[in-house]
Amino acid sequence: MTTDTPTTPAVRVRDLRRVFGDRAVLDDLELDIARGEFVALLGASGSGKTTLLRILGALDGADGGEVLVPEARTIVFQEPRLVPSKKVLANVTVALPRSRSAHGLRALAEVGLERHADAWPATLSGGEAQRVALARALVREPELLLLDEPFAALDALTRLKMQDLVGELCRIHRPAVLLVTHDVDEAVRLADRVAVLRDGRLITDETVTVDRPRDPGNPAFAALRRRLLGDLGVAAPPQPVPAPVEPTPGRTEVGVI
Ligand SMILES: Nc1ncnc2c1ncn2[C@@H]1O[C@H](COP(=O)(O)OP(=O)(O)OP(=O)(O)O)[C@@H](O)[C@H]1O
Ligand SMILES: [Mg+2]
């Protein structure tokens, strides 16, 4: 029997196996996520990332192994999946116990959309709709937040803003997080740990030690990016050598994300 103590991980996966046809997409996969820990999962297309996420979210079953996840868990997908016939606030509180429905407005405020509470989903931009999906996930106070490429459909600037928002909200609410992404920089910017899924298991599972706020220009950031791209079978592009800049007297240049 497992006793649930503060040191028990939020997620514990052992020997996980998922087979489609004659292919074991997940093959003896092992993963722990501590409470409040943010793990980013990278892997080539078709490597099994969504399959793993769906199993952790109980949307799919396993063919073998052990999966322990908290009861309170929510998933945000690449598309916001809002109900078009419900207004924004009703989308956030959909299927929420009545005792918690008052929290919907607060969740919308956290993602900066309280003024859109009475709007229809069709009137929202892609980034706004995804923020509603995030509010809908967070209002349930999940102990495990599963994010499947939640920023992939957004333009580059909106994506950076969403990354900051998710990072900040996760620091406030402290769910355990599994973020699936194809974006190595996004993974290194946000995560406490990064993992790479290949051939059914995690071939990399590494704590990110780069100082926050994480600057892609930081040599430790660049070195980790190179290693991860190598694990993904992609050669890292050569880093441009910056031209020397004369410092402005009285000012200090700092890294900006
Ligand atoms: N229900 C299913 N039936 C049969 N094959 C499936 C099923 N679900 C997934 N697969 C196969 O399992 C493999 C892994 O799929 P999965 O969606 O997990 O990949 P992924 O890593 O999320 O890829 P992407 O980065 O493109 O989203 C793929 O080859 C896919 O075709
Ligand atoms: Mg996927």
Based on the model shown, name its key terms.
disordered C terminus, three-stranded antiparallel β-sheet, 257 residues, six-stranded mixed β-sheet, binds adenosine-5'-triphosphate, alpha/beta, 9 strands, binds magnesium ion, 28% helix
Characterise the protein shown here.
By secondary structure, the chain is an alpha/beta fold. Helix content is 28%, strand content 23%. It has seven helices and nine strands. The strands form two sheets. The protein has a six-stranded mixed beta sheet, sandwiched between helices. A three-stranded antiparallel beta sheet has the order 2-1-4, with helices on one face. β6 (144-148), α5 (156-173) and β7 (176-180) form a beta-alpha-beta unit. α3 (103-110) crosses α4, α4 (126-138) runs parallel beside α5 and α6 crosses α7 (219-231). It starts with 10 loop residues before the first strand and ends in a 26-residue tail after the last helix. The relative contact order is 0.16. Mean pLDDT is 91; it is low at 247-257. The structure holds adenosine-5'-triphosphate and magnesium ion. Adenosine-5'-triphosphate binds at residues 20, 25, 43, 45-51.
SSE layout:
Blueprint (H helix, E strand, L loop, with lengths): L10 E10 L2 E11 L4 E5 L6 H8 L7 E5 L4 E4 L11 H5 L10 H8 L15 H13 L5 E5 L7 H18 L2 E5 L3 H7 L2 E6 L2 E7 L11 H13 L26
Parallel strand pairs: 3-7, 3-8, 5-6, 6-7
Antiparallel strand pairs: 1-2, 1-4, 8-9
Helix pairs in contact: 3-4, 4-5, 6-7
Bound molecules: adenosine-5'-triphosphate and magnesium ion.
